[in-house]
Each structure stands twice: as structure tokens, then as C-alpha cells.
Specification:
Blueprint: H1 2-14, H2 17-61, H3 69-186
């Protein structure tokens, strides 16, 4: 019996949520149908019991016209035995229905429990995976941001160097032209 439970657990663990919910719905429907059947049978048994009581009452009310006192006692014993047997059979039938209903309820609760446990496990795994993905995304974003900041710093240095070089060239150009300008102004026309 333990092997069957392990096999069922393995089957449940392979199922997705929709399949598990479908099994639960089926079990609920079966349980409801069993309960309705049980209620119908209880009503039938109650009706039979009422009819039995009514028959016993009618029997008690009728006069038994038998010739011998021994025959009356014998008939009475036989009738009592029949009623007792009928009552016992009805009670046994009710007990069997209740036992079947209890077994079905236990199986239903077991399936629901396993489904809830499996659903919780799936949710936990999904949460863990989501947290891991979020951590990786944040780490990757941090690395990308760090690289971008380094590249920006490098580009800024390159731009600053370029401007310094350009400024020096312009100053040299200006100075070299100052001398040329002074030379042109001082030369005779």
C-alpha cells in the first residue's frame, strides 16, 4: 500500500495546477454524488423503518385467531424474528453506507492535502526563482551601470585632453601669428 501512495505522489508531482484542480473538482463531484446517494438511502431506510413500524402496529392491532396457545406463541416468535432480522439488515446497510462515505472522505482529504502541499511547493519554487532572477537582473544592471560610468569617465578624460591640446594649439597658432602680424606691420610699404 505504501508503494501505491508513493506512485500516486509521483504522479501528482508531475501534474500541473490545472490537472490537480481538475482531480479535486472530480473528487468533490464524486463526494457530493456519494453524499446525495447516502442521503437518499437514509431516506429510503427511514421510510422502510416507518413502514416496518406501521406494519408492526397493524400486526399488534389485529387479532390472531389461532386454535392453540402454542401456535400463537410460535407465530409471535417467528414474527419477532423476522422484524429483528429486517431491522438488523437495515442497520447493517446503513453502517456500510457510512463506512464507504468515510473512506471516500478520507481519500478526498488526502488528495486535497497533497494538492495543497504540491501547490505550496510550486509557489515556493516560483518565488525562489523570481528572487534569483531579480537578484541577477540587479547585479547585471549594476555591472552595466558601472561599465557605463567608467566609459563616461574615460570619454570625459579624452574630451578634456582633446580640449587642452586644442587650446594649446590655438594659443601657439595665435602667438605665431602675433609675430607674423608684428612683422608685417613693421615692414615698409
Amino acid at each position: 500500500m505504501g508503494k501505491d501512495n508513493k506512485k500516486k505522489e509521483k504522479e501528482f508531482s508531475k501534474m500541473n495546477r490545472a490537472e490537480l484542480l481538475e482531480i479535486l473538482i472530480t473528487q468533490v463531484k464524486e463526494n457530493k454524488a456519494l453524499k446525495e446517494t447516502s442521503e437518499l438511502r437514509e431516506k429510503e431506510n427511514e421510510e422502510l423503518s416507518n413502514k416496518l413500524t406501521e406494519a408492526e402496529t397493524k400486526l399488534k392491532e389485529k387479532e390472531i385467531n389461532l386454535e392453540e396457545a402454542g401456535s400463537i406463541a410460535e407465530a409471535s416468535l417467528k414474527l419477532n424474528g423476522l422484524f429483528t432480522d429486517a431491522q438488523n439488515a437495515a442497520q447493517q446497510y446503513l453502517d456500510n453506507i457510512k463506512l464507504l462515505e468515510a473512506k471516500k472522505e478520507t481519500a478526498y482529504k488526502e488528495i486535497v492535502g497533497k494538492a495543497v502541499t504540491e501547490a505550496d511547493r510550486i509557489i515556493r519554487e516560483a518565488d525562489e526563482k523570481a528572487q534569483l532572477k531579480e537578484f541577477e537582473a540587479r547585479r547585471n544592471a549594476s555591472l552595466i551601470t558601472s561599465r557605463a560610468e567608467k566609459e563616461c569617465e574615460q570619454k570625459k578624460k579624452e574630451i578634456d585632453k582633446y580640449w587642452d591640446d586644442l587650446t594649446k594649439r590655438l594659443e601657439n597658432f595665435y602667438e605665431s601669428h602675433q609675430g607674423l602680424k608684428a612683422l608685417i606691420q613693421s615692414s615698409p610699404k
